[in-house]
Amino acid sequence: MNLEILENVIKFINQFVDFKEEELIAMQKKIEIIHLKKNDIFIKEGDIADRIAFTNKGYLRVYYYYNGEEITRDITPLHSFATALPSFVSQTPSFEIISAITDCELITINRDDLERLYESFPKWERFGRRIIEEMFVESQRRIYSFITETAETRYKKLLKQYPDMIRDVPLKYIADFLGIKLQSLSRLRKSLDW
Amino acid sequence: MNLEILENVIKFINQFVDFKEEELIAMQKKIEIIHLKKNDIFIKEGDIADRIAFTNKGYLRVYYYYNGEEITRDITPLHSFATALPSFVSQTPSFEIISAITDCELITINRDDLERLYESFPKWERFGRRIIEEMFVESQRRIYSFITETAETRYKKLLKQYPDMIRDVPLKYIADFLGIKLQSLSRLRKSLDW
DNA sequence: ATAATTATTTAACAAATGTTAAACTATTAT
DNA sequence: ATAATAGTTTAACATTTGTTAAATAATTAT
């Protein structure tokens, strides 16, 4: 295993829980690096999600079909975790699809291996809890923004927080993420130009 | 400690992780029952959230101020967990306020006690992780509904899922929860009457 | 290099939701 | 019982976003 490739993920992990060498090695033994080309699918509809990914490079999107249309619910920022969680936790077929918006390098771990890691090292379970807590808080922040902010404010904040994302991700997906139609986003962008 | 009062919470807990007698007793020793009257505050703005609550009776709401106005982001259904999570996890002053919509009976545990429970019994930490996973999934579902559904659909679904809530909770809070203004909700309700 | 495909913009009109202000109804306190 | 307060509805008009359809721009495949 090339250790350099794990630099980002280890840096990320250490923000939450302080691991000993052996605990990190136990994790390293179980991870698998996956490279996806643009539009490749990480988790298919109907699959049971059995891997969780850390996006070391590139952007993933989480989407599902609604009235025959693709709706992008999430665009994962760089260096974050992604899986189809409802499927992953309950081991039921996934209605969510995860695919690569750009070429991606994913650091992944299998669910069973993760469970065993949790069993063997309570600190890993603590890490799992902390991560999901962060994800929940971020998710609540997004609900807050749907309730109180206009689409324009949501767009401006996204632009500020993830300027690269706007550059690398088709606006269709950004529009879905913001909860508006592509044409409305386009109109909104124009009104900001002046 | 009156064991009957814990019936609901234990039933709820057992859905997620199967606990042994001693593990449940360890928990029971640490909980505190809190009774709130309507409009009493469970977590104040600026407080560091140090308790998490299970709503054994009644409804809580989570709100914050935006441009001097109260915005209700969450109404906690019966038999669910609530705390000001951003404050609780990072021990920083809370911008979120939690108060009682109706008279409430809360089964609560102090954060330090909870941490010690996690330390002593990895199964409790597992429970903590599972619960927050569920909460995250529910939160994602709500984002999905903001993206794809109209306010009318969101209202109808809420009505179906929590008919009691509509009866017991002022429409102002419901409207916030749905992401629309009280007057819009009122108009919408009228249009459904026919 | 060119054609085909994908992404983005534009515009006119429709629908949904917000804003302001007032009236009405129900609940709570004295 | 009555006054005060809190909750809900109504309505007219404003603003935002959606819808449909087409044009333009950028990217990708041959």
Strand-helix topology:
The structure is a homodimer of 194-residue chains.
Chain A: H1 7-14, H2 21-30, E1 31-36, E2 41-43, E3 51-57, E4 60-66, E5 69-76, E6 81-82, H3 85-90, E7 97-100, E8 104-110, H4 111-120, H5 122-148, H6 151-161, H7 163-168, H8 171-178, H9 182-193
Antiparallel strand pairs in A: 1-8, 2-7, 3-6, 3-8, 4-5, 4-7
Helix pairs in contact in A: 4-5, 8-9
Chain A binds a DNA duplex (30 and 30 nucleotides) through residues 150-152, 170-172, 180-190.
Helix content of chain A: 40-55%
Number of helices of chain A: 9
- In spatial order, strands of the major sheet of chain A run 1-8-3-6
Q: What is the mean predicted local confidence, pLDDT of chain A?
A: 94
Question: What's the assembly state of these chains?
Answer: homodimer
Largest Cβ-defined interface: A-B, 32 and 32 residues
Order of helices and strands of chain A: HHEEEEEEHEEHHHHHH
CATH topology of the largest domain in chain A: Jelly Rolls
- First and last CA, distance of chain A: 51 Å
> What percent strand of chain A?
15-25%
Q: What's the architecture of the largest domain in chain A in CATH terms?
A: Sandwich
Beta strands of chain A, count: 8
CATH class of the largest domain in chain A: Mainly Beta
Q: From the alpha-carbon coordinates, what is the Rg of chain A to the nearest angstrom?
A: 18 Å
